[in-house]
Amino acid sequence: MYAAIYTPRARLQAVLQQQPEACYQPAVVLDEAELVTTSQRDRGKLRVLEISSEAEEFGVHLGMTAVQAQARCDYLQLLNRRPAQEVVLTETLLDLADAFTPDYEDTALGLCLLDLRGVAAIEAEAIQQAHQLHERLIGRGYTGYIGIAPNPDLATLAARICAYRDADEGGVLVLHQADVERVLYPLPLAILEPTPQMGELFDLWGLRTLGELVELPRAALVERLGEVAGTLQDRARGRSTRLLRLVRPEAEYTATTELEYELRSTEPLVLLLEQMLESLCAQLHGDYLVAAKLQMQLHLTDDHLYQRVFRIPEPCADVAMLLGILRVHLESYEARAPIVGATLRAIPARPGRHQYELFSSGVKDPNRLSETLVRVEALLGSERFGVPRMQPTHRSDRFEMRPFRPELEPSAPDCPQQLVLSRMPLRRYRPRRHVQVELASPQQPSGSDSIGYKNHSIGYNPDSIGYNRTAHRRVPVRITSGDFKGRILDCSGPHLANGNWWERSTYWKRHEWDIQHEDGCFYRLVEEHGEWYVEAVG
Amino acid sequence: MSNCILNSTVPSPATIESLRRELKDKFADAHRDCCTPLEMVPSGIDWLDRAVSSGGGDGSDDGGVPRGALCEISGQSMAAGALVVAQMLQHTLRERQRLVLIDGADSFDPACLPIFGEAALPGPQGEPPDYCDVDGAFLWARCRRVEEAVQVADMILRDGNLPRTIVDLQHNAAREIRAIPRSSWLRLRSLVEDSGASCVLLTPEPLIACAARRHQLRGPRVELAAIDSPEPFAMP
């Protein structure tokens, strides 16, 4: 046997839970959430989603606009939907169903189907349970009806009939296959809840009752109105049957171990995590799932909790693979105190399927690559491994390192100019090298601009920003210290760069010189606060 | 065998030749390099792609970078080395491939390519900007010593997922590179052969004996006036 819990006018009931006073007057629920504020003019165009029985008596029906509905009834209340309360209603129905059977379906708003075959061996038992269900539903403050029948759709119809007759049978109706013709056929077609268009069409055809619909030849009906009409006719005959889409609580894939002793080295911890992973992966395998993320928590003796989430590049439920990811991380992790417990939680996903494309450069083994990247990062540190991105400043050699993302397919940039070298590439010294520089007047001065002012310096204007020309009449002629000791054959500069002039604490200013050294290389020399540095070589 | 040791006379060339043939037949794998023409992939550097090696003849062993073998490019000119890296990077990004740069002295200058300064893109669902075109295409390992660079190269090549690697040691001292045991380079060669990746080693002078291809950068000296040009000199 199947049972249906049906709460008629579910949206209206959801609103009435918070506005009980609205039940004393005809009311409609409009297709607008409570938090949305619409102008009065636009509100008139909103469609009616639900109507009270009192409003129905005034000729108001579903699908009308608010203005049309108000035209039928002057003192009609226009109510907004309450999505949060609708969720509460659904949860209430599922909660009631869960108390009776583990097999139930969240069919629609205000309708829940229960499979009682496993819990009620005889009909009397099912009826008794239905009455209990009804009492509890009333106790939660909702008006509802229970239908019991040999198939799900018939049980739904039984509950609707019960609502239609308005509690003649104490809120519970049992409908057998043998009673279908007697009970169902005289009922109006509205009990099947056809779409408004189809309901209108049936009306035009002069069809009023289920019996009249059943008499039509099925093949011809489907030919004219589609499979939906055939399904409606099957329901009217009480013969349609289907499998329920059962609601299953979301499974938790968590393993926790609390130790009575302290762990101080990696190997025992890895062994412990391996055991926990075996248990987790067995659960995942059982549900045909894989781990998309793995959350590891380590409980330390000083009550500190170390937590880390690992994204699995190619989700899997393979113990060795997952353990490898944890192990690589643990090799570079130093706990601040001994470990006395661990928790592993897997965030499940469905196994992925992908097909490699002929011209794509997809990664062959994402999990292995991820493990390798973690290893290299552990060796170098995250600030020395990844993808550079220049910071939005004119200051030299300012960039940040971003993580490499192998899941992104390499793509050519939209603008080809982004791949054109902006200048000759240099080799940087990081950190820059401090040097002593000997300055002298240029040998053949022919005016202030002849000492190598270049147009490419960033925002350079000698006559503004307080540039002191006389201070730079002298040019570097020799490096007198360090590895770069030697004569400067030629130089170009100074190129003034500065920034953050609007803030004294972060203001910076520097003079750059490109020099030709006697060793054949050219270097970029920088003067900042009277100190000289070699920044790059070319 | 004991006779050979005791016998101090030099064997005839014919004997040596026959011994070589015998060894070649017996250990074919060890002689693979000299027998099998290398498959070359374009590097995006004109002079390197035009350079035709002696072997081949069927077009499979022409210019470019060998796949499944080490390629050493050596030269003293820092600008030339940096340009090689930049051009290979340009080519890889244009070809929508992935490239790993293992930088032995943390000397790469990302400011030379505007793509590293591009604004981040919004996510597919309109999320806030969080990634760029290069985020999945270029990986830069900023090492400080040659040993570190070789270690990272070992990991990356052993992984086998990233097919193009540049190990840039040009800014490291030659003596530091010489201090690396030969077995380490042989191991890298073996990893490259197994994975079929292409691996370019940039060095200040020819130092990697087991490289299948060795090129030397001999460009004219860069003049100071030319440094604002993106490509200030033509390569040999």
Mean pLDDT of chain B: 79
Give the second-level CATH assignment, the architecture of the largest domain in chain A: 2-Layer Sandwich
| Helix coverage percent of chain B | 25-40%
Instruction: Count the beta strands of chain A.
Output: 21
CATH class of chain B: Alpha Beta
What order do the helices and strands of chain B follow? HHHEHEEHEEHEHHEE
User: Average pLDDT value of chain A?
Assistant: 83
Can you summarize the main beta sheet of chain A?
Answer: 7 strands, antiparallel
| Strands side by side in the biggest sheet of chain B | 5-4-6-7-3-8
Q: Taking strands numbered 1, 2, ... along the chain, how are they ordered across the largest sheet of chain A?
A: 15-21-20-19-18-17-16
Helix/strand/pairing category of chain A: alpha+beta
Q: What level of helicity do the residues of chain A show?
A: 25-40%
Number of helices of chain B: 8
| Beta-strand residue fraction of chain A | 25-35%
Distance between the ends of chain B: 50 Å
CATH level 1 class label of the largest domain in chain A: Alpha Beta
Largest sheet of chain B: 6 strands, parallel
Number of domains of chain B: 1
